Amino acid sequence: MGVRLIIMGPPGVGKGTQGELLAERFGIPRLSTGDMIRAALKAGTRLGERVRVYYEAGDLVPDEVVLGLIAEAFDGPEAACGFLLDGFPRTVAQADGLAELLTARAIGLDAVLSLEAPEQELVERISGRRVCEACGLVTHVRLVGDASPCPACGASLVQRSDDRAETVRNRLSVYREQTEPLLAYYASSETGLTAVDGLGSPEAVRDRLLETLRCAEAAG
Ligand code: AMP
């Protein structure tokens, strides 16, 4: 029986990195709406063209678009035995839509995790984030310097188009206005919400998350 998790938190808090570590640990797919959107943009699909303007501005794409992407993923074979949702839901309407998708499939959530870090740290992490154009590795100028190639495959490292300073400020305010209300939404839900400190090395944060899940399982 697989595990079904949501990992929430502001841009730059480490949802992607931690989501990957947890998904690997539990043998479940990480369903990232941000990754799905970037794949559509790169492939130049109709969906990609429809959402480009929102993405480039750091605004949320329409709820029905991401709900469609998640519904499709739920119905694929990959997510049959559990999943980790990363970057979804981001609005109350998306959370309501997710609840309907889960009810229709007679499944529930095991935990909703909220990663936290101070705003200054988020800005610093996002502005130094670099992504490999070829293999998708995500790293930071703190680790690799400003002009080096990808340490994994040697291709070029680039900044995500929505990681530029002017877009980052908008993404943070979009988070505060549209996504933060979901913390109270899940805190008062049957599953509850577990806040976890996102500061420290990726391994330290991962261990904190795993410990939290172990405790939640013991309590449940
Ligand atoms: P992320 O990679 O999760 O930081 O998402 C990057 C961008 O993709 C966001 O700034 C939005 O433009 C879009 N996006 C990703 N997930 C969602 C979502 N659940 N709802 C609306 N827009 C999203």
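^ adenosine monophosphate complex. The chain has ten helices and eight strands. The pocket of adenosine monophosphate is lined by residues 11, 33-34, 37, 54-55, 58-61, 66, 87-88, 90, 94, 162, 171 (CB under 6 Å).
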